[in-house]
Structure formats: structure tokens, C-alpha cells
Design goal:
Blueprint (H helix, E strand, L loop, with lengths): L1 H7 L3 E3 L5 H11 L5 H9 L3 E5 L2 E5 L5 H7 L2 H4 L3 E6 L4 E6 L7 E5 L9 E4 L2 H9 L3
Antiparallel strand pairs: 1-2, 2-3, 3-4, 4-5, 5-6, 6-7
Length: 135
């Protein structure tokens, strides 16, 4: 997966990977254990911005996740959503933690509610593949 992931992220300006301790601390702050494939992504790039295929994406670093979710009042507007980035155009990317495994959805920051969620992957890997253009 690592080589495929690197290829998909070739046009993404990537930060250095997250440490195990940063990941564990973020999980503790948020009260969630991240999916294995998301952890692999974080270890490769702890945040990034740019294109995946023809889609623009911004991924927040693991240290920002708790604060970003609190700032956007995610729990109040879409309980069970854990946002981890955006498309740079007013929509958040996030996990639907109400289901196992966690699917990825796109949802507007303004008017955030589950009625506005659009499924874009049954897993984090599928989400990246869809952004990249591979179904």
C-alpha cells in the first residue's frame, strides 16, 4: 500500500510523517482509535495540500484535529463526524464514526448536518482512490 499511496500523493505537498506518540495523543484527545489505513497515511504525511488526481485536498496534521473539530462545532451539528481536512472549497472531509468501518464523507462547513453528507468512500483508502480517479 505504501508505494500506491506515495504514487497517489505525488502532487500533494506533504508534511513530514506523524510520530506514533502524536497519533496516540490525538486519538486520546478525540476519544477515537483511527483506522489503520489513516494511521499509515499520517505516518507518511502529517498533513498536506494539493492535488490527488484532479481533486484538490487539504489534510490537517494530527495535532490540529481535536481543535479543528471543536472550532467547527462538529459534535453540535453532526455528532459522530470526525473531520480531517477539506476540498479547499467550503466542504469538509471526514469520517462517519457512527458506522464500522468508518466511511468517508464530504460535508459543507456551513450548514453542516448529516442530511448534507455525501459518501465518497467506504474506507480511507477508497476515498483516496476516488480522489485519484481509480474506482
Amino acid at each position: 500500500m505504501a508505494d500506491d499511496l506515495r504514487q497517489m500523493l505525488a502532487r500533494l505537498k506533504c508534511a513530514s510523517g506523524a510520530s506514533d506518540s502524536s497519533i496516540r495523543e490525538s486519538e486520546a484527545r478525540l476519544g477515537f482509535n483511527f483506522p489503520v489505513e489513516y494511521i499509515a497515511f499520517l505516518k507518511l504525511t502529517n498533513g498536506g495540500e494539493g492535488f490527488i488526481g484532479e481533486e484538490y485536498a487539504i489534510f490537517w496534521n494530527v495535532e490540529e484535529l481535536a481543535e479543528a473539530n471543536a472550532d467547527y462545532q462538529v459534535h453540535e451539528y453532526a455528532a459522530g463526524l470526525l473531520i480531517f481536512g477539506s476540498n479547499g472549497g467550503g466542504e469538509a472531509y471526514g469520517f462517519d464514526t457512527r458506522r464500522e468501518p468508518w466511511p468517508v464523507v464530504r460535508m459543507p462547513f456551513v450548514g453542516m448536518n448529516w442530511g448534507q453528507a455525501i459518501s465518497i468512500g467506504d474506507s480511507f483508502s477508497e476515498f483516496l482512490e476516488r480522489l485519484h480517479g481509480a474506482e
